[in-house]
Write a structure and sequence with these properties.
- With 224 residues, the protein is an alpha/beta fold.
- 30% of the residues lie in helices and 26% in strands.
- It has 6 helices and 9 strands; from the N terminus they run αββαβαβαββαβαββ.
- A hairpin with a 2-residue loop joins β8 and β9.
- The longest helix is centred in the N-terminal third of the chain and has 19 residues.
- It starts with a helix and ends in a 5-residue tail after the last strand.
């Protein structure tokens, strides 16, 4: 029934979504605000970003190094910087990076903003926290905007991510990824496993019939 309702609502929602986000929109969480430009993943109508933000509220971030990998609007980076973290934000979308630059300047928050396709321009860096809100629908993205939603028809995003990620997963850091029940979690986990990575669910949150999971990613001890 849930999938039937989504199929009925989706075409209508898509039109309204496109119209509403045809110009910059603000997104605020507590005392920080991001300007979301057209073509940038908007956190307004999804629940994953807010779940991550609420989780980070429970963490002691002061003086911790944090990477938001694929930052989109950058609201997570802004909030982490406001909480005292030393923040790096990366993305492949120039509009996202420019928007975050403006938002961080207006909020007087220092964030190291980098253009990077996953970890390609982040080599030899170490982070206490790595936050990943990935694209997970298996479809080929047609443009930079769709890169935020689609991971490739054969999950190419995850294959590349999990190939690179082991270098950045340490015993004393926290690598977090949020996934929805709507995606193929088991298949994504299997790709991680092939790269000696394991998932541990540390939070499960259901909102309006959709369940999201925050996973902590670790090196599979069996291979150490």
């Amino acid at each position: 029934m849930r999938n039937i309702i989504k199929r009925i609502i989706h075409p209508i929602a898509k039109i309204g979504f496109k119209t509403y986000f045809s110009k910059p929109r603000k997104y605020k969480f507590e005392n920080v605000e991001a300007i979301v430009h057209p073509g940038v993943f908007p956190p307004h109508l999804t629940i994953s970003t807010k779940i991550l933000l609420n989780y980070l509220k429970t963490q002691s971030l002061k003086n911790k190094t944090l990477l938001e990998l694929g930052c989109g609007s950058g609201i997570i980076s802004l909030f982490a910087a406001y909480q005292g973290a030393i923040v790096t934000a990366s993305d492949i979308n120039p509009s996202a990076l420019q928007g975050l630059k403006v938002s961080s300047s207006k909020s007087d928050l220092h964030i190291s903003i980098r253009y990077s396709d996953l970890f390609e321009n982040l080599t030899n860096m170490r982070f206490d926290y790595i936050i990943i809100n990935p694209p997970y629908y298996p479809k080929e993205p047609k443009n930079i905007k769709e890169e935020a939603w689609f991971c490739g028809s054969n999950f190419e995003y995850f294959k590349k991510l999990f190939f690179q990620l082991p270098e950045y997963v340490k015993k004393d850091n926290c690598v977090l990824m949020i996934l929805s029940q709507d995606c193929e979690i088991k298949h994504i986990e299997s790709i991680a496993s092939k790269n000696n990575l394991s998932f541990k669910s540390i939070l499960e949150k259901k909102v309006v019939g959709e369940t999201n999971f925050i996973f902590k990613i670790s090196i599979n001890e069996e291979f150490n």
